[in-house]
Write a structure and sequence with these properties.
The chain has three helices and four strands. The longest helix is centred in the first third of the chain and has 18 residues. It has one domain: Alpha-Beta Plaits (2-Layer Sandwich). The radius of gyration is 13 Å and the shape is globular. Helix 1 runs antiparallel to helix 3. With 96 residues, the chain is α+β, with helices and mostly antiparallel strands. Helices cover 42% and strands 38% of the residues. It has a four-stranded antiparallel beta sheet. The relative contact order is 0.31.
């Protein structure tokens, strides 16, 4: 399985837009990607501009499909436009 965890900070005042876009991406991805097992977006309890995106895919092919999907190309640019500074994107191997 392929797992990625992205930690990022959303620009002040853009939180609602970011959450709306991420919710749309998550819903569409779950409807259209059988290889997507988990796509969670969580917000820090105290620092309300800090978010983590956690995604788990069945395999590399499922991850590649996600990256190449039309809705991904449509939604990710405005999502990234909400991000302030650099996003910390890490890949992991799922254990249990």
């Amino acid at each position: 399985m392929v797992v990625f965890i992205a930690t990022l900070r959303v620009a002040a005042g853009r939180e609602e837009e970011f959450e709306r876009l991420q919710t749309e991406l998550s819903e569409i991805a779950h409807e259209n990607e059988p290889g997507l097992l988990v796509y969670d977006v969580i917000r820090h309890a105290e620092n309300r501009q800090t978010y983590v995106v956690y995604a788990r895919f069945r395999d590399r092919e499922a991850f590649d499909y996600h990256q190449e999907a039309d809705f991904h190309h449509r939604l990710v640019p405005p999502i990234l436009d909400c991000v302030e500074g650099e996003m910390d994107l890490q890949f992991y191997d799922w254990i249990a």
